[in-house]
Amino acid sequence: MDIILIIIWILIIAGWFLYKRAKIVYEELESYGIPYEGAINSYWGIIELLLMKRHFFYLIDDQYKKFKGQQIVPAFNLSQRSFMARDAEIIKQITIKDFDSFVNHDQSFNGDIDSLQGKMLFTLVDDEWRNMRNTLSPIFTSSKMKMMFGILSDCASDFMVHYEKKVKETGKLVINSKETFSRFTVDGICSAVLGFKGDCVENEDSELYKLSVRMQPVDIWSTFKFLLFFFFANIYKFFKFQLTTKEIRDFFYNAIVKVMKEREQNGTFRPDVIQLLMQAKKGQLKVQDKENEVNEAELSNFSANIEYDVKAKNTKLTNWTDEHYMAQGFIFFFAGYDTTQTLLQVTTYSLAKNKDVQQKLIDEVDEVVASLGDASISYETLHKMQYLDMVISEALRYWPPASATTRGCNRDYDLKLNNGKVIKMKPGDDVSLPIYSIQHDPKYFEDPEKFDPERFSDERKGSIVDGSYIPFGYGPRVCIGSRFALMEAKLLIFNLLRKFTFEVCDKTPEKFELAPNFANFELKEKIFIELKLRN
Ligand code: HEM
């Protein structure tokens, strides 16, 4: 009985302490007309996350919907002031126009917080980030993507051989789309980035596939560590937690550092990311390869990456260690395979549900196949497929694989609101960009719950407001791997639709509902769809 009383008192005091802290942090916002209620929601939201009651995505979306009409509202963090932008103009301002005041992703990240995660491009800050981004950008230009196109085409062919054999036995096959597409994207990223064949599609017991599953924070302990990493960086640091296990660190050491050394000794060459990382390490990688560059702006809707100048003021910070290169291999793998498999899940599910869209895409695929004769599809031809680009663009709007991203404020900054008031932002403040929510805001996208690729047609795409469509983020800190992801996803959809149609089956869920883990696209009910052999 005494113990229960003590616990109740501890909870009351902790609750009162948190309330007072929220008041100090957010009180100032009330004077700008930003409801204080938002701050309390944030605290309650974090408790729900800790208890694994809801997915992070729903907290963001609820907060976004609750404060209709506001341009900026409080977000979720207990270590620093945190805001959520719910306005395309503000997103544009923060990510592009005033980028120099918002260079980094989040203040809690830095090199010493986690030996591997702290050194990835995603988490590097300021000039260290600028230098690394400049070093790595040449790896993801269209000329380099063309170089890797053959590697990914081979992965897509292996996938097709495997599944054609299976489907032919009965004429149709029900697949667990998350597992099926994860196996493909792990193979793709493994072959194109790490430089060896993954064999996850062919080999059901693949150790690499099992490792990729273990990398996802789905169990309580990993989710808890992730939450500490994001929301209570000081506690995370104090206990010297690491998000990655020794097994994962060893895998990436062997896959990146060891292979780089071996290739250097043996003088072997393969057109993959690891080779480009070796060139980048020696400073031999040039940003432009004009002759082979593809003008993607001419070829597709949103596939083109704008190259921003992110030159560092202090260019001397380039003495990268082996751990830095290992960290880049890790982030390319981690950020690359799960996002792209989510895109494939959403695309195939949406095509199965929207047969008219699927038929229109099949018509385009057939037209391209007829024009190819015996030749294989090229990088340029794939990117010229306009309807495929529209479908993929809509899938990325409908369910963006990354439902939010963040920017940390790195210097005093006046954020002007439409009501004439100015929020005085300080170094250490965070702004989250709610990718899913803004892409589902009827203010920007009419009938947002409808899967409608026509939004991206030549006639209509011009009316999309800048800053409201941001599946790969926005500005100089935009996803570095977007070209790779689009190429991989388009290639597989093209190959699949040559042979199969996607059908809804008994086990296909009516809608997506995310499981209550922290961050990744893990559904309560898995998506099963049927692959049916085309006549
Ligand atoms: C459909 C697939 C993908 C989606 C939707 C996606 C989405 C995103 C988003 C939203 C960001 C944050 C951008 C920002 O804050 O403005 C990001 C960053 C990043 N992504 Fe992706 N991504 C995808 C695939 C990939 C692939 C294939 C790779 C690597 C091969 C990759 C590597 C990265 C890296 C390294 C960053 C950090 C960039 C930086 O901080 O400079 N992503 N991605």
Automatic annotation (TrEMBL):
Q: Can you tell me which residues bind heme?
A: 479
Query: What GO annotations for molecular function exist for this entry?
Result: heme binding; iron ion binding; monooxygenase activity; oxidoreductase activity, acting on paired donors, with incorporation or reduction of molecular oxygen
Q: Where in the cell is it found?
A: Endoplasmic reticulum membrane; Microsome membrane
The main location is endoplasmic reticulum
Q: Does the keyword Repeat apply?
A: no
User: Could you tell me the keywords of this UniProt record?
Assistant: Endoplasmic reticulum, Heme, Iron, Membrane, Metal-binding, Microsome, Monooxygenase, Oxidoreductase
Per UniProt, what is the membrane topology? Peripheral membrane protein
Q: Which cofactor does it need?
A: heme
InterPro entries under this entry? Cyt_P450 (IPR001128), Cyt_P450_CS (IPR017972), Cyt_P450_E_grp-I (IPR002401), Cyt_P450_sf (IPR036396), Insect_CytP450_Detox (IPR050476)
GO cellular component, alphabetical, reads:
endoplasmic reticulum membrane
The UniProt function text for this chain reads: May be involved in the metabolism of insect hormones and in the breakdown of synthetic insecticides.
What does the similarity note say?
Answer: Belongs to the cytochrome P450 family.
Q: What is this protein called?
A: Cytochrome P450
Organism name = Chironomus riparius
